[in-house]
Every structure is written in structure tokens, then in C-alpha cells.
Amino acid sequence: MKIKLYGSQHWPGCPGVKEALLQKGVKFDYVEITDSMKNLKEFLKLRDKKDEFAIVRRVHAVGIPMLLVDDQIHLNITDELIDSL
What we know:
Helix content is about 40%, strand content about 20%.
């Protein structure tokens, strides 16, 4: 299973999700979207083209934290989802 978390240390919900994954021992790659243009573009490519982000785009939200699990996008990151990983 390949897991990638997109987030930012500057966004309130992101550090908590990252910490929850670490506490559960989930192996994941973390993409800090504010670290570089490369990271931001990687996230925006998903956010601007995937149907899962339609509501995010419609309300002009950012869309983080976001988990990508084996190419499946998860915007609603619950404890149940984290426990299932």
C-alpha cells in the first residue's frame, strides 16, 4: 500500500493528521506543499483535475490535509480511515 499525505504546517488540521498517522505506525510519504514550488505543483495537479476536489474548487478552499492511498483520494480523514491503514 502506498500512502502519501499532502499538507502544510501552516494549516490547522494538517499537523494533527500527520501525528495521528505517526502514532498508529502508518508508513507514509509527506508532501509539505509550502516547502517548494515542486511540491505545490504536485498537489495542485491533483486538486485542479480530480473530481474528488470539485466541492473544494467550488468553495475556493485549499483541500488539505489530503491522503492519497494507492491513487485513491481521501479528503475526509477520520480516525476510522487511519485505523484501516
